[in-house]
Amino acid sequence: MEKKFNLPQRIRLANLPTPIEKLSSYKGYNMYVKRDDYTGVELSGNKVRKLEFIIADAKEKGADVLITTGAYQSNHARATAAAALRTGLKSHLLLTGEEEPIKAGNFLLDLTFGAEMTLVKPENFYKSVEIMQGIAEEYANNGQSAYIIPLGASNEIGNFGYLNAFYEILEQEKELGIEFDAVVCAVGSGGTYSGLLLGNYLSGSNKKVIGINVSQDKAYFEEVVERIANGSLELLGLEKKIDKSMINIIDGFVGRGYGLSTEEELGFIDNMLKTEGIYFDPVYTGKSIRGLYQTLSNNPELIGLEQGSNILYIHTGGFFRLFAG
Length: 325
Ligand SMILES: *Cc1c(COP(=O)(O)O)cnc(C)c1O
Description:
This protein has 325 residues and is an alpha/beta fold. Helices cover 38% and strands 16% of the residues. The protein starts with 19 loop residues before the first strand and ends in a 10-residue tail after the last strand. The structure holds pyridoxal-5'-phosphate. Pyridoxal-5'-phosphate is lined by residues 45-46, 75-76, 152, 154, 186-193, 281, 284-285, 316-318. Pyridoxal-5'-phosphate binds at residues 45-46, 75-76, 152, 154, 186-193, 281, 284-285, 316-318.
């Protein structure tokens, strides 16, 4: 579908379009998965789509170094470090975690990419923005320009990644001869969800856009999504029109907390591997797709779709978790 607005510049990093595959039907719903875990290898997962726009902005502003933050096993930090190498930039990661980081998974890749690192204790992580600003100043003192990417690349520029992905889905609907009634994703920092919501709004396609939060709570993400989605509309020169009534986030699946798992969650992930042959990670995709299935089974009114509806779950990545020890 043609866009009635001009997206800002973007650098090509992701392998697009990502495929859409059918899963086994569930409780009478037709389940599909969009494999955004296939956006690449080193550069895999959802952050790559956001980084295409954010790094274009960084380059335009003359950046030499990308600074960002996350947990030791952050997919976003790893994707940023890889994307920096591909685009001729340096990266500096501010990472945190409860215990000494294990040299495995994403963290091992970060080390291998040669990313600069600052490690911070979890109790000091609330100061991460301030610390990143301090790191940026140090670069400035050495004559280098640093560009700070927020947690999860979720901001008004990062949103364009999933705004674009929504239009990609509309194209794929035509090719596949399927209309999706709902698009569902994990909500970890909010940018994937708000991008999809913007796509739905701007294309007028009237799908249900459903998020399942894996950290914080629904009220927190309603604030975030409203703010950054309207920020994107402003950048596009459009009226700010996103309000909380348009946001559909299903709460109740954070479980023991961000990054922590329950037996039930791990059992669900194992079952998806054994029945569908697809790996969903415990931090984001496993929790959220389990939340989707549980809701379809126990509270279908929260989703509000007829049996026989087509539901598209966005697989946002997390593969390296499998090798994180
Ligand atoms: C970051 C991440 C998410 C969450 O996306 P947000 O845009 O931050 O809400 C989901 N899945 C994976 C694998 C991620 O790395």
